[in-house]
Amino acid sequence: MDTKSNKDEKNITFFIGKTKHETEKSTLTVKQILEDFAKVKTTEKSLALKEGNGHHEYADINESIDMKNGMHFVLFDKTPTTAS
Questions:
Q1: What are the structural domains of the chain?
Q2: CA distances from 10 to 5, 13, 22, 41 (A)
């Protein structure tokens, strides 16, 4: 019996941009995804879930997300742009 494949069944695969990530947790907060997986500061980037032709942007970094295999997230820049 292959125990590695049994362990992999517990892992949830998700993407941030084109980068693949895995977790064993069924829920993660927006903050955890940004800091622990995307390795970005919550003050500089926001997280959005790709949904059909659009996105659902998470406003609350403490919001819990029920993780499902194949979720695709994108990062949005929160830093202000300067006009010259």
A1: 11-77 (3.10.20.90)
A2: 9, 10, 10, 28
